[in-house]
Amino acid sequence: MANFSSAALALLFITAPCAGIQPVSYRTFDGFASDAHAAPMSMTLVSRFYVPYNLNAASLAFGMGAAEQISYDPIEKYVYAVSEQGVVNVVDYKDPAGPVLEPTLGIDLTSVDEVGGLTDVEVCGQWLFVSMAAATKTDPGFVRIYKKALRAKSDSNKSAPVLAKSVTVGPLPDMIKPNHECTKVAVANEAEGVYSQELLDPPGSVSIIHIDTGAVTPVSFESIATSDDELMSKGVHLPLPLKAMEYFDLHSNQFKDKLDFASARANYKPVSQLEPEYVLWSPDDSKIYVNLQENSALVEINANTGIANNISAYPLKDWSASGASEGIDTVNDDKCLLEHKPGFASMRMPDSIAVVSVDGKTYILTADEGDDKEYGKFESKQKFKDVIDSSTSFGSDFEEFSADAATLSEAYSNFGGTKMRITIGSTAVNYTNPEKPVFKKAVGFGGRGISIFNADTKEEVWNSGSAFEKSQCAAYPWAHNGVQDEEFASLTGTLYKSASTSAKTKEAIEEINDPDQDGCSDGGNGKPGACPLGKTVDARSLKDGAGPESIVAGVACGRLLAVTATEKQGTAFVYDISTISSPKLLFVHHLSPASETKNPGVAYGDHTLGDIDPESAVFLESHNSPTGNAGIMFGGAWSGTVSFYEFKDASGNKCQHRSYVDFGTSGAFCFFDIMSALVIMLAAAI
């Protein structure tokens, strides 16, 4: 009987159809991991593709947002890259080492009058989704649903995406995410406020699109945001609550004649303070998790009823000696100096989140970047020296503020006379009496690392502490808390010359290219210009430090990994989170080594520039990878790059799937481990 069972098992193994083989999934990581020694210890570049900012293959330039977001279709092996210039490009990864542009498959939305900027792109099953703001930013935005591009046996028969329907959603749909069955799409309607003579700030919300019909279930946050006091009592950060508006509008000697919040105050609703940044589905698709970056908070939605169940704040990160860190670098001295700061904390404010399920429990991973708000002359982020003038007094801009002597003295001892960025939002200032706001404590932006939370209890399970600044400095001291972004574009480049580029951005580019201001005498080509990353060490230490942007999770070499990358420096951090309560940093990897000695314009010109502003990433488990080896793709928003890496273990071996899977338009065709099955059959025969 035992022999028959073994033979039957072997036969089943050989003949099992592809659909019956369940690939390893990051969503259900339940103890099947290989030994920790098998974990990846490096990643190697397979290819890097420079995406044009429009559908013309020759339209290549730094700073144009050519790869603002990316999505990969593992069946057709196409990457979709959404450009800030109003197009979606399609890149073919049939040859992963030599990807090519498919110009006939791209989508051009530049001539659609009602459409503003494109914000996100996702592919799921047979569908392609593109989100976009309205031409007037505060008006309802749109999500276009397409039948995705299809590969054919001959290149001449490839089919471009076909529009199926256009769906109206909330203002500024900044992020979209299909559920795992590709039947619904969750949309994060960020609804950013706009100040022009007065403030117009629509409420943030979520839309759930039913793909088959195009019907929309709107999810309002009003039931969980009944008052400012209720939100603040839960620790939710409000950048500009009603009482703060009253202070700046009526009582601030510095700002009352420069701002007009009268209409905004008259029409104020607490929900207008909530701005969804990122959405993800729970592993069973029953819940939607909504990350509110500017509020440093998380909303949980019942995906079946479309009702927001609750809102919870991410805890502040304590940088004092009693906090779980080795300190923070807040000194611009070109060194890696970690110090504890008594009484100082920062808001996590994650940009993106990831969801994993380990041993039956769901966890939320956060990339704690930090962010702020600006409305006209109002800025929620201020230089410390402009807020607090001495250990006993406030600066003239905030002379109406008050504080107890100990709080003021402690804050000043930490940052007196510096440009350390702190918030003047609700977490730091009590505006209950708008004539005399009370400064509670100095609070910074961003957690300078990643965190893990229990999705059910919302309790923190783990945080990376000071590992980002410490490890980045050890591996790439030239990148420590440095900066490269679109403002480092060349004065002769496309961004600076573009008629659509704002005067403010052009002025910033001029300053950064001027050696007498923020530029360098040698930008990497022997000529004056913007500084290379290697000449900007510590430039972000007084702001958000090593602020991570995207975070993704998946399985490679039998280990559950979390991968994130910093926005301003382009440093990737790869963690083994198989033991969810005690992750291990495996390695760090810089995404643009050329940036050490070359500014973006110079490096882009000679095609050595890597990923600048890696705003999106796609984790490719081996069964979804174009090579059959586990890896990751990064999309560099400002560099306009898509870079594909493969993971390798300590011996240099790639992380291969036990079965080779070749995806094609006719379905899945699999080759299984026949030798293993034959061994079982032999044992049965004996």
Automatic annotation (TrEMBL):
SUPFAM superfamilies per UniProt: YVTN repeat-like/Quinoprotein amine dehydrogenase (SSF50969)
Residues making up the signal peptide according to the UniProt record: 1-20
Record-linked InterPro entries: Choice_anch_I, Mesenchyme-surface_protein, Quino_amine_DH_bsu
Entry keyword set: Signal
Keyword Lipid biosynthesis: no
Domain Choice-of-anchor I residues, every copy: 59-472
Name of the protein this chain belongs to: Alkaline phosphatase
Native organism taxonomy: Eukaryota, Sar, Alveolata, Dinophyceae, Gymnodiniales
Protein encoded by which gene: ap
